[in-house]
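re: ur question from earlier - yeah i can do the single chain one, its not a big deal. heres the input i used so u can compare w yours
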Amino acid sequence: MTRPARTAPLKDDIHLPGWDSSYTQDEVRDLIRAYGEIGEEGLWSNIEYFLKRVIPVAEECGVVMALHPDDPPYPIFGLPRVVTNEANIDRYLSIVDSPSNTLCLCTGSLGCSPANDIPKLVRKYSAMKRIGFMHLRNVKILPDTSFEESGHLTKNGSLDMNAIVKALVETGFDGYFRPDHGRMIWGETGKPGYGLFDRALGSAYLNGLIEANGGVIE
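and the output i got, formated as tokens:
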């Protein structure tokens, strides 16, 4: 899946949160060039190198590693993305088949692609005990297939949040979850995407879905 480029960081004078305080424009461009030269199979090779060395140690120490999917799940700035769909997630988990090698399954990140059936993915990987952490949020996919973050309620976005929570409850998920991102509402100001009030509303909504589906909130 591709999207039309609206910015070209190797050419345009752009400024994004965190860049200006961490990198100069030239440093950012050098990093993007180096990343782009690796390619998809280069990324897979690096992932394999990392997992085969880290996961055995994590097992020995009782640590669970949880990978967050690419956000969004398609290339940006011409850079490859590899953890984007069911086939690629299966590939990732099979590199080292271990309970210490899990997903941080973010419904908003994977849900940006209409090709991803989020309740199905949640049910599958929760049943496999390969979800170490859940990020639960909704997104609204727009007619041009771009997206925007929305409120957590199912009616506010494109994801069936009740079906997602139902899949977690029915597969016995007992791990950690959070409402993840939140909008700025009620006059609140702060870091974009991390509104406290909206996340609190999301947490209450998700707890209600868990209870309504017969789950236990601890």
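Residues 19-212 form a domain with the TIM Barrel fold (CATH 3.20.20.150). not sure if urs matches, ping me
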